[in-house]
Request: fold
Amino acid sequence: MEKSRIDLPIGITLDRFIKSNENQYPNAAGELSQLLRDIALASKVVNREINKAGLIDIMGNMGQQNLGGDEQQKLDLLANIRFTRALSKGGEACGIISEETESFIDLKNKGKYIVAIDPLDGSSNIDVNVSIGTIFSIFKKQTPQDQPLCEKDFLQKGRNQIAAGYILYGPSTMLVFSTGQGVNGFTYESALGEYVLSHQNMSCPENGNIYSINDGLLDDITQKGVITYLDKCRKKRLTARYIGSLVADFHRNLIKGGVFLYPPTTKLPLGKLRLFFEANALAFLIVQAGGLASTGKENILDITPTTLHERVALYIGSKKMVEEIIALLHQE
Ligand code: AHM
Ligand code: MG
Reply:
């Protein structure tokens, strides 16, 4: 059954929004609502830590690398601890997999959801006071509840997501999420300690003026169609905008219209971004907002992952722009 969009007034708190949403479903036990509240709570703690990062000695990297080979920053690790702890104590998720850890964690409770999370994305921007983000996906455990949690519970298509969202730690902090009934954005009002609905039923313009790619990759891009697309963008005098924090680049393009590209390169032949921690959640959101997300060959939401940390090429944003990239890649 197609879910109807939630239409609640600007200014309503996240808590009331979640409650009203839940009331539409008489049989809802409130577990997903509680899970979303747990994520929101952890994000407030992370937000506080990010805000004071310049003042105390938690900046800088740890000198160790995570699984993907990226240097782990101290705040990445702190954020990972905060979210894991909140979900573990909350009890609604039975398992969590984070970009920062090799395997999943069995939270050893009766929760029916599993969470995939990138606790702090945009690591190269952490030390320089530029926007960063948290990205999360919520799925249902696939195997029967009484069976121990296993990898199969996590290796699900993005289309199976029950909810997904991100937190953008920018000039203001925002939580943007969807439970499959449109996308809503909440701005954090720190004086009240509350997220407040500020962006109702967000929709991504069908076409846009912005293209976002790391220009330094140009000579390493392995798909001719992408080079052709970028030439066309320049000829059309589109605007190039690239922050290097996926959540921030995505958020801007969602609102203004645009496309984000991270193609396969000679160095990273599968692309850089992780299906499970970055691409899936944003694909779920963009589709809910009327946009599209693709590897160029396949809809992101249709990919069945074979490993937890697998990477994908990512073209995401305004529908017509992504369709044009797909068409050019098909001509190769
Ligand atoms: P991270 O998970 O180590 O933070 O890497 C992901 C980030 C994204 O936020 C961003 O879109 C991309 O990496 C930028 O990569 P690059 O520096 O290669 O342009
Ligand atoms: Mg990341």
Observations:
- Helices lie at 14-23, 31-51, 74-90, 151-154, 224-235, 246-256, 275-288, 319-330.
